[in-house]
Amino acid sequence: MTDKTHLVDHITGHRRMRRNRKADWTRRLVQESRLTVDDFIWPIFLSPGQGVVDPIPAMPGVSRMSIDRAVDAVKEAADLGIPAIAPFPDIEMDLRDPTGSHILADNLINQFTRAVKAAVPNIGIITDVALDPFTSHGHDGILREGIIVNDETVEQVVKAAVMQADSGADIIAPSEMMDGRIGAIRRGLDAAGHQDVGIMSYATKFSSGFYGPYREAINTGGLLKGDKNSYYISPANGMEAVRDAALDVEEGADMLMVKPGLPYLDICWRLKESFSLPTFAYQVSGEYTQIKAAAMNGWIDGERVMMETLLCFKRAGCDGILTYFAVEAARKLAKA
């Protein structure tokens, strides 16, 4: 028999990585990470009124919706198999004040939660208790003499968390990054009889430039006085992010979240490896808009990049992704 050994065989020791890539069936057989509709949480924006669908210029394809129209959209999401939604409200300016007191009223989030639970009872609702949609200064907490006061803010978000749970929220996801908030919310929920309501901690929320379109969506960008560096994590600090998450785990978080997503895939991996809790990434507005804008200009294949970035979160250890692409990606997966 003629020896057909090639120079490449000697160099690689007869190991060739391309054997497992040679055909579609082998690539599917050895695929390590898989994306399904079960991985999606859909963030949606709420608006006052009736019959409102208000497109957000900075987020092509995303609109603020009144509760009636949002419930219709949630029905479609549930039909596609999306497990959960995360509502964020655009509160009327005359209801915003320095302490964000309207979060303790029967506000858009709580009204929406009740409406969804009545119409689409099998979809999960994950609500935030950060004060930024409710404050006149755009910060996530109560502002006193130029300082975001930690403890008073925590007291308020605990009350808001109980009200959201009373309205039917399944998971509270506090994003305001105050120290001690997870333990305080856990105690508050349990005292109110909401032992079954979970907490998804925004365990590592970075002081990022990727939030701009979101702030347009809830109309806080023009209100913000100063920055959020005193309570968000510096993008430079990985170990601090892990320590922050560790404290939330100790205080009783059921799930962890990394925000933003794609620029912090290393943090996703580190949290999953460190704590073995369900770990999620928030593919934030700036990430979404970059992809949409580049695709609209013909610079990238938007659909392909959408699916690639979502799959990357899975590879990095995430159990799921909060993404504005949820419905679009779910439709694509349904056709696959």
UniProtKB/TrEMBL annotation:
EC number: 4.2.1.24
GO biological process, one term: protoporphyrinogen IX biosynthetic process
This protein's GO CC annotations: cytosol
InterPro entries per the UniProt record, alphabetical: ALAD, ALAD_AS, Aldolase_TIM
Domain of life of the organism encoding this protein: Bacteria
Annotated pathway: Porphyrin-containing compound metabolism; protoporphyrin-IX biosynthesis; coproporphyrinogen-III from 5-aminolevulinate: step 1/4
N-terminal signal peptide: none
PROSITE patterns: D_ALA_DEHYDRATASE
Active site: K205 (schiff-base intermediate with substrate), K259 (schiff-base intermediate with substrate)
Assigned keywords, A-Z: Heme biosynthesis, Lyase, Porphyrin biosynthesis
EC class of the enzyme, as a word: lyase
Single GO MF descriptor: porphobilinogen synthase activity
A Pfam family this chain is assigned to: ALAD
Reaction equation(s) it catalyzes: 2 5-aminolevulinate = porphobilinogen + 2 H2O + H(+)
Subunit text: Homooctamer.
UniProt similarity note: Belongs to the ALAD family.
Name of this chain's protein: Delta-aminolevulinic acid dehydratase
Organism the protein comes from: Xaviernesmea oryzae
Source taxonomy: Bacteria, Pseudomonadati, Pseudomonadota, Alphaproteobacteria, Hyphomicrobiales
